Amino acid sequence: MITLQQAHVEEMYAHAREACPAECCGLIGGGAGGTARSVYRLRNVARERLVTYEAAPEDLFDAQRQMRARGEQLLGIYHSHPRSVDPVPSGTDVRMAYYP
User: Which of 10, 11, 18, 23 is catalytic?
Assistant: First the structure.
């Protein structure tokens, strides 16, 4: 389980609003106990940004470097569904729910 502060939730909401109508994506970094410390916004470079996301590789690597420097680990990956009525994972989300 991940523990988020309200400021983290607000940061992700702000990211989603700013990216709309495209999907946004980012990482959540924090401690081994699951307490979030940071939200890392990533640019969505997917060809079909309105319905999917693909994190810019350079942003992904930069965020991971920042996490290491701060003594954080990757706790989660977030993204928005601005065109969806239901806030549930899509079929694509379920199929792609892994991180190498």
Answer: 23
Residue ranges per domain, the chain?
6-95
Annotated catalytic, 23? yes
**Check whether domain 6-95 has CATH 3.40.140.10, yes or no:** yes
pTM for this one?
0.90
Q: What is the pLDDT of residues 77-86, one digit of tens each?
A: 999 998 888 7
pLDDT digits (tens, 9 = 90+) for 27-44: 999 998 999 999 999 999
Phi, psi of 6 (to 5 degrees): -55, -35
